[in-house]
Amino acid sequence: MDGCDEDIRLMLAFQAGDESAFDRLFERWSGRLLHFVERMVREPAVAEELVQETFLRVHRARDRYEPKARFSTWLYTIAGNAARNELRRPFRREHHDSADATPDPASESAPLQLVSSDPSPDRVAHARRVGDEVDGALAGLPPRQREALWLCAVEGLSYAEIAEVLDTSEKSVKALVHRARVGLVAALDEEHVPEKPEVSR
C-alpha cells in the first residue's frame, strides 16, 4: 500500500473509532505541515499553533471525511486556510529573531542545511548563509505565490491538487508558480550583485 492509501486508511480507521490512527497521522504529517505553515506566517510559535489547530479541525471533521481526494490535499487545504486567516488578522504579532540566534539543525523549523556529515566550519557557515538567503527570498514572495511554490516544489502536489488547496484554477496555479520561481531567482541574484563603487567627483 502506498503512502497516499495509507493516509486514507488511517483516516478511515480514525473515523471508525481508532484514536491511535489519528496519532499516527499526526506523526506522519505534523513536521511537514510545520515547514509549510512556517514559510507562510514567518513565525515559528504561531506556525506550531496553526498546525495544532489544523489537526484539531481534522479531529472534529472525522465524521464528515470522505476520501474523494488525496489526504494530503485535504490536509493542506485546512492548513492553508488557517495560515491565510492568520495573515489576514489586522494586528499580527511581530516576529523577532535574535541576531545571535543559530537555528538548531535538529529542529523541524530550521532552514534546510545542505551540509555533509562531517563539514568544515567554512562549509557550515556557507550552508547557513545559503539557507538564510533562500529563506529570505521565499519570505519576500507574495504569500499566495510562496504557498503555491512550496506545495509544488517541496510537497510535490500536482497543479490540480494545488488548485484545490488554493480554491483557484490550474491555469492560475501555473502562473503563480512561474511568477514565484522568477521572483525567487531574481531575489537570489540580487543577493550576489556587488555594490557599485562610489565615483569621486
Q: What is the compact description of this entry?
A:
The chain is mostly helical.
Number of strands: 0
* Uncertain residue ranges: 93-117
CATH architecture of the largest domain: Orthogonal Bundle
Output mean pLDDT: 78
Q: Span between N and C termini?
A: 73 Å
Keyphrases for this structure?
201 residues, mainly alpha, Rna Polymerase Sigma Factor, Chain: A, single chain, Arc Repressor Mutant, subunit A, 8 helices
Write structural notes for this entry.
- It is a single chain.
- Helix content is 65%, strand content 0%.
- The chain is mainly alpha-helical.
- It folds into 2 domains: 1-91, RNA polymerase sigma factor, region 2, helix turn helix motif (Rna Polymerase Sigma Factor, Chain: A, Orthogonal Bundle); 140-201, Arc Repressor Mutant, subunit A, CATH 1.10.10.
- The longest helix is centred in the first third of the chain and has 23 residues, at 19-41.
- It starts with a helix and ends in a 10-residue tail after the last helix.
- Residues 93-117 have low confidence and may be disordered.
Question: Which helices and strands occur, and which strands form pairs?
Answer:
Elements: H1 3-15, H2 19-41, H3 44-60, H4 71-87, H5 121-139, H6 143-153, H7 159-166, H8 170-191
